[in-house]
Give the backbone structure.
Amino acid sequence: MAAHGSTVRDVANLVVPRGGRVEETGDRSLPFRLLDDQGVEVAAVTEFLHHMLADDASPASLRSYAYELLSWQRFLRAVEVPWHLAGRAEARDFALWLKTSKKPPRQRRPDAPAPGSVNPVTGKATSGVNNAAARGKGPAERYCR
């Protein structure tokens, strides 16, 4: 059921263009930054990453969050909601879109196991073709008002 006043989006058929990018800066005070389609730094993400850095987040965590926020930015652009107006409905729809969308294809090693197969030693599944369900709030939900 939709929240009061929110729109239910058909996220399963949503086309999300791949614009923007995460860039490594080589600067210890901000090792990664998010750039929009025009190559302009996204100030809201820079501020968020600075707060994470101040809380002792590792560069690897900053990189991971920057990529997650890149997906969030792409999603918001696809649903035509400005970053500063995104709320709970957009966070919900983003989570649903992540569950239903396939990961972008990438080059795999010839000897790599098939996506979603089980490691015979550990018994753990390898990454599948879809995104995994989150086990807590992601950066988009934390950032939303």
